[in-house]
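Quarterly update, task 2.4: zinc ion-bound model.
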Amino acid sequence: MQKVSQLPYQRVSMEAFAQEIQGIITQVKEASSAQAVMAARDQCNQLVIRWQTAEALSYMRYSINTADPFYLAEKDYYDEVDPQAQNYLLEYTKAMLATPFRQELEESGAIIPLVFRSFEVELKSISPEIIEDMVEENRVVSQYSQLMAGMEFEFRGEKLPRPMLMKYAKSPDRATRKEAYEVLGRTLQAHSDQLDGLFDQLVHIRDRMAKKMGYQNFVELGYYRMGRLCYGPEEVKQFRENVRRDIVPLVAKLRTEVGERLGVDTLRLYDYDLIFPQGDPVPQGGKEAIFAAAQAMYHDMSQETGKFIDFMLETEAFDVESRKNKWGGGYCTSFPAYHQPFILANFNGTAGDVDVVTHEAGHAFADYKTAENPYVVELGIGGMETAETHSMSMEFFAWPYMERFFGDDAQRYRYMHLLDALSFLPYGTIVDDFQRQVYENPDWTPEERKAAWRALEADFRPHITFDGIPYLEEGTRWQYQMHIYETPFYYIDYCLAQTAALQFLLESQKDYDDAFRRYVHFLSQGGEKVFTDLLQEAGLRSPFQEGALRQVAQESETLLRKLQSGIEKKA
Ligand code: ZN
């Protein structure tokens, strides 16, 4: 088996790409039969696979060693030419939608209708008249990203990047947590003009794009840009109501109990990152132990997950050690020409290390299972909400094996995991609805935006207070939620996926094998069905149905109480 480090890399030049895609577009336009359209479509998919593989491979080799001049140049090359490639692909999409053979292709089953529907949504999300605005949007987003990446937080005489500062937010010592949040607030405050100004620019650029394309405001365009095929703002409104009615009271009750166990009178924002007075559970062993546990787990889970993890380990598809010149984040990607997933992470000794072999591996398992699906180029593994269902559910299917990772702390880990998952729903809903309100009211002042955030916090997280935390108490928590600036409306997807994952967890408590079989079936179809259809097929409730979260809330509470009493017995 070829190791990832040995996969051959070859640049696909823009000139070669342009020449071939132009030929394909002409073929689609001049096709005299459905077969001729199919031949052009197959050729296009092969070209896209080669392009994506080169782009992903060069980025991966850059990220594992950012000082490598060859792959840095290759990455820069694709950054520069990719918009041109996307433009050509848009022309191809238009040609496909205009073909007189569409009906024949759909009815004969040569191409499923969902492919054409996704082409239509793609076309609604972009138009030549907004290209310049998109360039400007990217420029402002980069300014924000650079501002945040370069921001230094002075804590106890040290200058820390934000992820390092936030480690102190999990300290069992309350004064330390408080101090960390004070530093966070004051440092953001020092940049408040920029943070407000950049966001204001982005809101107006996005609003302008939407209006040029004939939409009332950016909300509609934002949904098309996310490629959403089965829900819109109305469905999300119902979801929001479901969270408000069934999840908010439960989380408020559970979090208040956690606060009592932590011994705090009033639950403040800086008490929210900690669940156990003695600190959160951490994995028992290092890298070797985690991978040994993961391999045993996936073999026990099913034959296909066993084959998957062996493939990943044999091809050396994980790079998880922090080292100089390695990019500091984490991701799961794939090289489609080689049917090869790949995971990059930076282990740091926290429970997050285990997420790499559960959450990220869930993404990789989906890539692995769908690599040869007939529509994987056009439909991918589905929307963001579908992809995150793959990964978040895998975290829960790993539950029976948590002793292998956390030893005696496994029960505490499960409690923390489930409570975090539930607590996330109100927060994610705030993030999403804040954006809706902002884009529906593009001329709001910074003060009006902050007031809207405060109102949402009071509505969805009434049990915590921001009082006394400099700057954050003004309603500015969103200014370091980077999705809000960088990828609008990309956040509710996590909430939707979380509700599906929670249902898989609860089903797995009743009949693990049956739930797992339904999960693998859900995942194996990638994007060939829309999210709501996949849920229905898996026997799960759509989060958009009224009352969809009632049972989730009840059963989760029962499960948490059971876990809690197990923890108390042990203590
Ligand atoms: Zn993910």
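Highlight for this quarter: The mean pLDDT is 96.
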